[in-house]
Design brief:
Layout lengths: L1 H7 L1 H23 L2 H4 L4 H14 L5 H13 L1 H11 L5 H20 L2 H30 L6 H79 L1
Helix pairs in contact: 1-9, 2-8, 2-9, 4-5, 4-6, 5-6, 6-7, 6-9, 7-9, 8-9
Amino acid sequence: MIDIFRQAGWPAWILLAMSVAALAIVIDRLWVMRRSQVLPTQALATASDLLVLIRRRPNEHPDLLQAQSALEKSSMAGKVLVAGLNARNEDRSSQELAVQITGQAMVRELERGLSLLATLASLAPLVGLLGTVAAMIEAFGVQSGDQADPQALAAAIAMALHATGLGLGLAIPATLAHRLLRERCDGFVADLETMAQRWLHQLGQPLRQERVEQASVDHHKTVSSSGDS
């Protein structure tokens, strides 16, 4: 492997640095895009139970605050759920805005590094091609002398071929990794959007029920007042 880098010349070291960067991005994204860190199975159920407890205890109880903080720190979905939970006493538009802002921040976190990975995958063949062109220029320079040097010519051709091969060797797995990570990210984004819609429905449903009950109480009071008069 070291001999290949030596024969490929200076483009090989650029491609090596790009390979290290691409590998670091892939490892980081695989670590971040774990389901337990993005959308745990029980996240919505935990938030629903917490909402019921909070509405039964209007005062901010320390245990409830601790549970809310733990939910927020547990995953990206927890941050979205807590954003809606903090806006539970607001109207529907305010709740949607709070969930949307937090959700967009989580999407940006999921997508972080993917554009750079795609850029590295696109540039790798170009760097390999640049090495090929440089090697071919060197080969023609060797041939243009009074006495051609077969060894120098062979070294220039080897540099051209190795530079092209290394460029493609980086571009192919980087493109594949980007495509797989992109699909995984899109899947999580779709799941987060579905969870957010269900959560907003749960936040608004008790509020509408309370309004209906309050309207019924007001109606009874009005009827009672009319009867007394």
